[in-house]
């Protein structure tokens, strides 16, 4: 059998002519001959970008919820789930449909299943946000059921895919742990939705909510973000030599152990001492990861810090701040003044400051690269084709990043101080910055 033609390219570098056929499935750093059709991941990524703008817009419109003393208002719940499910999880699913074949050298089990799941998941996210935003928490079971079905289809697709893996790199172990967390998250979320109607679980509803939220942010999205960075950062920044296992193994053990401990401690209300011990384990893992990430940048061969790495550096800083805010929450009594503001600042920093910035930064490489490989690589040598950097306006993208980052800083200060105009200004800036990023990247797809 004739091996596939290899197109040797590097993200951010000028495209080169196709090389001679060579053995093996690798076509480039972000796609292989085993990869799914480009329409599968891109439909998730484009929709996730639209949800990102929608989530920030909703937060701006209902900024009052971020300064009220009442925690978990309907509008706040809607904005949070739009961010976590519509924005971050939607993009994470699309990224895994593209990324798993690249990292683990296996084809996706079923593209058709992935496309069917997309529509069920989209309906579930919209339904859940609508019911929560309307204050009808007793009727969230139907969209929650759609989400359980869609995520179940996704997990089945991933399990059947991962069953073929022969070699597990560090990123693969993080992906496996993240998918396991997602399975627990959706189970806990559905039980919580049904329990609002039937009340059959004797555990505290607040304990359920807190445990569910932490497992989603730290376990599913957090472990995935950390694991993927061990593949993408060295690739994009040309970080060589870099040994991912040197600290990566300890980081994986610390983070997964800490996430499980935090989930169990919150769910069973084991008390502040147990929760503090678990959070210190998480903190140790975060500290080692921040050091390892800095090492990736120190040994990079691509010296300028490009737009993607600017997002990622800000995202790692957001992770460190999230960890410190979480530690402050553990040490602050629930009845203390300002506790709810600290909770909200912690949630905003985790979802937007860490995971949001990191996700947008990676998309500025992934989306143009996928589009260029699909649309322009076959034209090489036949006509003039654009470079990756020409697919979107760089200055406008930088302006969007600055607006988003400034908006998040301002919004955090407003939430912590309880000053509504500052919160509104911050989220408005973040909405504008995210809208610029979404416009840039969606125009690349439909170019």
- Number of distinct helices: 12
Structural class: mainly alpha
Radius of gyration: 21 Å
- Summed over residues and divided by their number, the pLDDT gives a mean of 88
Concise account of the structure shown:
By secondary structure, the protein is an all-alpha fold.
Explained architecture:
By secondary structure, the chain is mainly alpha-helical. The relative contact order is 0.12. The two termini are 35 Å apart. The chain has one domain: Cytochrome c oxidase-like, subunit I domain (Cytochrome C Oxidase, Chain A), CATH 1.20.210.10. The chain contains twelve helices and no strands.
List keywords for this structure.
447 residues; Cytochrome C Oxidase, Chain A; disordered N terminus
Write the layout of secondary structure elements.
Layout: H1 39-61, H2 74-104, H3 111-133, H4 141-162, H5 170-198, H6 205-237, H7 245-268, H8 272-298, H9 307-331, H10 339-376, H11 394-417, H12 420-445
